[in-house]
Amino acid sequence: VPVSKELTTQEAADLLNVSRPFLVSLLNKGQLPYHRVGTHRRIAFDALMDYKRRRAGKRSEALAAIAAESERLGLKP
């Protein structure tokens, strides 16, 4: 993998719009693959974009469920 396609934890956190500690917790939980370069973690750009797409899909599903429930209850926006 070319170095330009690997991100630091801070760069990855910035792209996801989350804090670096939160990103590190995702890495530690195995929710996002990474490898180490010495003592530093590196995240492949492609893996980060896959995670971002999965997260967006889950968000869309949750919003659709909320909208459906609101409609079922007759609530208006």
Summarize the structure.
Helix content is 61%, strand content 13%. The chain is of the alpha+beta class. A 3-stranded antiparallel sheet has the order 1-3-2.
Tell me what the structure shows.
The protein is α+β, with helices and mostly antiparallel strands. It is about 60% helix and about 15% strand. It has helices at about 10-15, 20-30, 45-75; strands at about 5, 35, 40-45. The chain has a 3-stranded antiparallel β-sheet with strand order 1-3-2. It is elongated.
Layout of helices and strands:
Blueprint: E1 6-7, H1 9-16, H2 20-29, E2 35-37, E3 40-44, H3 45-73
Antiparallel strand pairs: 1-3, 2-3
How would you describe the shape?
elongated
Tell me about the largest β-sheet: 3 strands, antiparallel
> Which range best describes the helical content: under 10%, 10-25%, 25-40%, 40-55%, 55-70% or over 70%?
55-70%
Q: Report mean pLDDT, rounded to a whole number.
A: 91
The oligomeric status of these chains comes to: single chain
Q: What is the tally of helical segments?
A: 3
Radius of gyration: 17 Å
**Beta-strand level of the residues, as a percent range?**
5-15%
Count of strand segments: 3
Distance between the termini: 48 Å
Structural class: alpha+beta
Low-confidence spans: pLDDT under 50, at least 5 residues? none
Q: How are helices and strands ordered from N to C?
A: EHHEEH
Order of strands in the sheet with most strands: 1-3-2
Task: Provide tags for this entry.
77 residues; alpha+beta; 3-stranded antiparallel sheet; 3 helices; 13% strand; elongated
